[in-house]
Amino acid sequence: MAIPGVAIRGQRSLLRQIREALAGGGPAQARLDMVVRIIARSMVAEVCSLYMRRAAGEMELFATEGLDPAAVHVTRMKQGEGLVGEIMKLGRPLNLADAPEHPAFSYRPETGEDPYHAFLGVPLLRGGRAIGVLVVQNRTARVYTDDEVEDLQIVAMVLAEMVAGGELLVGGDLKGVEIAPHRPERLKGAKFGDGLAYGVAVLHERPVAPSQLLSDDVPAEETRLSTAIATLQAQIDQMLEGNAGLVDTSFEVLDTYRMFAHDRGWNRSLVDAVRNGLTAEAAVERVRSEHRARLGQARDPYLRERLHDLEDLNDRLLRHLSGEGHTARELPENAILIARNLGPADLLEYDRTKLRGLLLEEGSAASHAAIVARALDIPCVGRLLGLRDRVSEGDAVIVDAESGEAYLRPRPDVVKSIQARIEVRAQRQAEFAKLRDTPAFTRDGAKITLLMNAGLDVDLDIMGETGAEGIGLFRTEFQFMVAEEMPRFNAQTALYGRVMDAAGGLPVTFRTLDLGGDKVLPYMEAEREDNPALGWRAIRMGLDRPALLRLQLRALVAAANGRELRIMFPLVATVDEFRAARALVDIEVAWAERRGRKAPSRLAVGAMIEAPSLIWHLDALLPLTDFVSIGTNDLMQYMFAADRGNPRMADRYDPLCPPALRALEAIQRACAETGTPVSVCGEMAGRPLEAFALVALGFDRLSMPPAGIGPVKQMVLSCDREAARRGVSALLKGGAGSVRHEIETLARKISLAV
């Protein structure tokens, strides 16, 4: 192949020989021995060896041509040891002219590999996870060509699929190979949504498995592949032109997504794999595994997000090849969804009556998927490093979102323990349900109004069950994010009308579109920003695109149809921004009245305090507003200059610390002095201990996810507000960092139910 004058068998001939050898009769070991002989002869290599991963994680020599046969099943290397361990760790080929000179080289005298210098090793990848390594060696020091590397990778892919098929692993030494993880594992992550769940793993990125690996008609396979790629590219082009939308996408950096679909390198890799004898489906799986192994090691969040895009592209291409299109998946009754990351629309496509929990490899508590999971009351744990490669479809899985942990293939005693905890939790939920109609008064008579955050139709269905006294925050952008195209006036009006109808006369506060930053719509052109959280988003986008904002305001006025209307603008940073936005509301009300339509019976317009700049300009802002609401999620990230979507920063600063609590106290005091109604609608309001601190600071309106109302109400009913005020006030004078521990101690002292 690379040595002039030497006749080399073609790639397709080599693959056929391997297939015939593996499909033949006789012991599995004899078939593997034949395979390495065939590869060595075809590659003009003096050595060809196959190493496989044992269940304990070590690598074992399973077959060799050229090394000492007595070393087979004797030579073993620990995880990460030697060149084989290096390939397993990196998940990509290692091509060396002089292997003994490499720092990772591990000398094993029993193999007799002393004379060999040239070394080429490639991983056997199964779903992006290395299960073995295929190696060829030569005495002469030389670097193998790109063609040889490509050939050996394709051979390794076929071997991986054949081994994973189970035919070879029927007994003897071969049955200990670890094709998929099977040992119990406990992963520590981060709480994204509270709760407990036990069920079976369902892989969100489940590929359409190729039914056949090798093709007998290369031109026909190439035509199938080209047709599917062209269809995929046209679909994405059309989506970006605004004529259609993607339902199953992450909604992020879609222009880059299109670039990948048209990328010549990606297309060429697929075509080359088909020309080397693979079916179109097998070619997609081979390229997928290569990308997973390469980008999965990247620490750069941007590169890892691009892997998410490539995964989606590969899945879509496989569906086009299979003719499946995009169809809803049937879930088991106790499904635990496993994903690297999710967009909000992804989660909503699953049957919520069967979805028990969600585990994510990436993301943050402020991500769209986490927000939707909390709205649906689905236990969710994220930032589980290596999750996707440690779990297989159908594995038993536990989601412990109380401690931020996941158990994969748990032991019976762990299952018994979690089931007992689930029963206790169910009893607590029953206690919360009994409090549904009980007014939330503290023990010393202070009334605390408990509202719910919403943004989905399902929120409306459960509003009555929660005992919420209204909707303190309705996130209108969710309708835009899950739609295939920009929602028209009638669609927006219908949704807002349904929300008011479902509220049954209780107050509803609509937050205008909080788009931009990390919330990129699939049908809107978006520019990548260096600091999206500080960029063109929320009210800034609305004021720069007044037609978009006015259309929404017009729909809100129409939906009110003579009822009370409460509108709130997000991320107001200056008083002038609020004045400009308020003026647009007045314009739309006047527009409706001129046409003889009903104006709202009462109009209340407020601002969200999320930018710290407003804390020092409340004297000018509050007289202009009818109410304000504190968005603690954004306020805290801006106060501490810590991106809440960055896993390294998300939990670095505790809102229960003097700077944060003093800022909240200053806002509450200013509102009290001016008589301006104020509420807290961030995540703090839905956690009993944090809500206790807010009540102690003087807040009496809290808006939270539906699942938080019961626990927070139970806390309120057990709270002595005056004692809480004195205790928290003393803590604000200290010089410590977080005062969470001290607040917990105070809560125990006054017998608080948290």
Topology record:
Layout: H1 11-23, H2 28-43, E1 47-53, E2 59-65, E3 76-77, H3 82-90, E4 94-96, E5 118-126, E6 129-138, H4 146-164, E7 185-188, E8 190-193, E9 196-203, H5 218-240, H6 254-261, H7 264-275, H8 280-295, H9 301-322, E10 335-339, H10 344-348, E11 355-360, H11 368-375, E12 380-382, E13 396-400, E14 405-408, H12 412-434, E15 449-454, H13 457-466, E16 471-475, H14 477-481, H15 489-503, E17 508-511, H16 539-544, H17 546-560, E18 565-569, H18 575-594, E19 603-609, H19 618-621, E20 627-630, H20 632-639, H21 658-674, E21 678-680, H22 688-697, E22 701-704, H23 709-717, H24 721-731, H25 740-749
Parallel strand pairs: 9-10, 10-11, 11-12, 15-16, 15-22, 16-17, 17-18, 18-19, 19-20, 20-21
Antiparallel strand pairs: 1-2, 1-6, 2-3, 4-5, 5-6, 7-14, 8-12, 9-13, 13-14
Helix pairs in contact: 1-2, 1-4, 5-6, 5-7, 5-9, 6-9, 7-8, 8-9, 12-23, 13-15, 15-17, 17-18, 22-23, 22-24, 24-25
